Structure prediction request, 286 residues.
Amino acid sequence: MIEALAADAPVLAQSILLQEVTQPEVYQRIQEDALLNLSFWSNIALAGLSILLFVYMGRNVEDPRAQLIFVATLMVPLVSISSYTGLASGLTISFLEMPPGHALAGEEVLTMWGRYLTWALSTPMILLALGLLAGTNTTKLLTIIVTDIAMCVTGLAAALTTSSYMLRWFWYVISCAFFLVVLYILLVEWPKDAEIAGTADIFNTLKILTVVMWLGYPIFWALGAEGFALIGVATTSWAYSGLDIVAKYIFAFLLLNWVVNNETTVANMAPGLGSANRGGAAPADD
Ligand code: RET
Prediction:
């Protein structure tokens, strides 16, 4: 018995070594892929610059709603800098063996799971800022934030499932279902609220930017190594980093720049969430 175990030991050790890529090894592999590494560090630099710029832009903002829009938006590059540091250090990247049926079945594929995890923190902040701008009510805000977090978490589950190829795509479909709810509120509900709140122009610009950019994420997930593996890991990472630049930093700059220049419009919006749905700022007769 002991002899049999001893004979198996080198095989066992080898299979463990093959499956467990240590953090220093992941870091080493990132260092060797200059394109991939640059996709992380360019975003760390941009997030840092954005934080400084947004703090400076918000230095004189006094209205509480405008301040809340600033705080929510500022959280986006703050989460981003943490997210990309996690990726660049190898902390939130794993090599996962793809299940049978996948184009890279049996191969260890670099999976940037930290992205999906941190999206669950950054995307609700983007939606909170947009919801405040549209003057939405608490029900719609809570619905969009909860479904958005569910979209990110089920997307994470899709990326981490290695037992079955079918189940990876099943998670993906669940995530898309949550995404549809997010899109419905963004495209149908909030434009009506923004009309009543008097912020329709800027809201519609940011809505189009958000919807177009956000649609890119599930598309690149499907095209990348986690999905059909039609494009390489570094290209996928650059696609996400590029989308991030527009969906986060450019989005945030446009929003905050508008808020600074239109603070009185924001201050004159009916107080609290939910006013838009009760017919705007007009008080009831009774
Ligand atoms: C996944 C894969 C599963 C299906 C869907 C996805 C959608 C992701 C989106 C991400 C947006 C991220 C942003 C990050 C900014 O920090 C998870 C890729 C629908 C829409 C804007």
